[in-house]
Inverse folding.
């Protein structure tokens, strides 16, 4: 039985009668609640065959658990007049009975089998040699769009890196300005330190404007890409 076992899995068992007499058969299992067998008994004419469907009910599959389920196909030569199948099996002598035992094996398909099944389910490509209704698309159009998109993404990453760099510089200047402001409070207003503070404050303004402009550019490119 091949998984997955979340639904009913059916396996066919072919029984053939190679003799020149009719043969009665009966299929038994060690786990009758787990399997549905159709037909589970019957008569096979000489030289004929019959297909028995064995349906495994859904269950939780454990690959580490070894299967102990078994089937037995029991057969005996049919009497000249068959009126009651139950009576045939009750009256059959042990030396007149023949049996074949089968062990159940559960297997899960591997990844390669799954990929093969998916590929087989895909429709084969159809080559149309007739005249096309419209012009054929240019083969380089898709690659060109991909190239432009890749360039925009790289440019956006570069601008974001610049924004981070400028933000770090602005933070450094802000911290330096706070430090100088504290020093200025302890000095006189006309001292060289106070003059240096005013100069640093005026110099930090253009850097702040550059950071704001870079943020707007990065936000605009980010929306355009996404």
């Amino acid at each position: 039985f091949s998984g997955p076992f979340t639904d009913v899995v059916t396996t066919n068992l072919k029984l053939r009668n190679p003799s020149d007499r009719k043969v009665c058969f009966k299929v038994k299992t060690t786990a009758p609640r787990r399997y549905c067998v159709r037909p589970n008994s019957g008569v096979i004419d000489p030289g004929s065959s019959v297909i028995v469907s064995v349906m495994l009910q859904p269950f939780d599959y454990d690959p580490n658990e070894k299967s102990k389920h078994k089937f037995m196909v029991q057969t005996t030569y049919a009497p000249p007049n068959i009126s009651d199948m139950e009576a045939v099996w009750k009256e059959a002598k042990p030396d007149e009975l023949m049996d074949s035992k089968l062990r159940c094996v559960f297997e899960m398909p591997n990844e390669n089998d799954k990929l093969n099944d998916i590929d087989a389910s895909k429709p084969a490509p159809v080559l149309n040699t007739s005249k096309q209704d419209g012009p054929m698309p240019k083969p380089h159009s898709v690659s060109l769009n991909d190239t432009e998109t890749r360039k925009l993404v790289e440019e956006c990453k570069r601008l974001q890196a610049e924004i981070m760099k400028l933000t770090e510089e602005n933070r450094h200047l802000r911290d330096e300005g706070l430090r100088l402001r504290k020093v200025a409070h302890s000095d006189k207003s006309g001292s060289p330190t106070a003059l240096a503070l005013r100069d640093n404050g005026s110099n930090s303004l253009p850097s702040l404007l550059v950071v704001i402009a870079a943020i707007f550019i990065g936000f605009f490119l980010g929306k355009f890409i996404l």
In short: Residues 125-134, 137-144 have pLDDT under 50 and may be disordered. The two ends are 48 Å apart (CA to CA). The first strand starts at residue 9 and ends at 16.
